């Protein structure tokens, strides 16, 4: 048990404990032309933000690069192989977990489906939909709203990977 809020140092072994942001990897999965670009969103089936639209993404495993996380999460959540395109950015956000607001560093890449048909993992999502980039729904997390705005703003330079 911690004797105070982090950062704190263990008196017995001198191990320092910090509350560092948790890294994530995710994708803005695109299809269509530059004038009618669509992105894929999935509907969350578990807290936090159950029932809201989400981008395929998740927390990095120990020592996993966020780009590898993005590819793994797309495979796990959608059942497809993806091809990563440009890195869109890293966004600082919050994630509610076990009664705490934890800081996160959400890293996103543009991506396209390279192989397979979408087959949702029912433990992750109840449905998926393609939305126009210029009229997205409210997303589960503010960082996702931000990355979609940024991709839309720079869409003239968005290059779809084929």
From TrEMBL:
Keyword Hydrolase: yes
Superkingdom per UniProt: Bacteria
Keywords attached to this entry: Hydrolase
Any one GO MF annotation of this record: hydrolase activity
Any one Pfam family match given in the protein's UniProt record, by short name: NUDIX
Keyword Nucleotide-binding recorded: no
UniProt domain Nudix hydrolase: residue ranges: 20-153
InterPro entries: NUDIX_hydrolase-like_dom_sf, NUDIX_hydrolase_CS, NUDIX_hydrolase_dom
CDD domains, per database record: NUDIX_Hydrolase (cd02883)
Official protein name in the record: NUDIX hydrolase
Lineage, opening ranks: Bacteria, Bacillati, Actinomycetota, Actinomycetes, Micromonosporales
């Amino acid at each position: 048990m911690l004797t105070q809020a982090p950062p704190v140092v263990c008196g017995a072994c001198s191990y320092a404990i910090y509350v560092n942001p948790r890294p994530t990897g995710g994708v803005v999965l695109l299809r269509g032309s530059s004038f009618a670009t669509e992105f894929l969103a999935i509907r969350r089936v578990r807290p936090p933000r159950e029932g809201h639209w989400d981008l395929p993404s998740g927390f990095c495993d120990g020592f996993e690069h966020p780009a590898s996380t993005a590819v793994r999460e797309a495979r796990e959540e959608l059942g497809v192989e993806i091809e990563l395109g440009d890195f869109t950015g890293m966004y600082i956000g919050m994630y509610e977990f076990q009664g705490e607001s934890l800081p996160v560093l959400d890293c996103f890449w543009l991506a396209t489906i390279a192989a397979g048909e979408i087959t949702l993992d029912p433990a992750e999502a109840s449905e998926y939909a393609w939305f126009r980039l210029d009229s997205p729904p409210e997303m589960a997390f503010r960082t996702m709203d931000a990355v979609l705005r940024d991709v839309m703003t720079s869409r003239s330079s968005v290059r779809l990977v084929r």
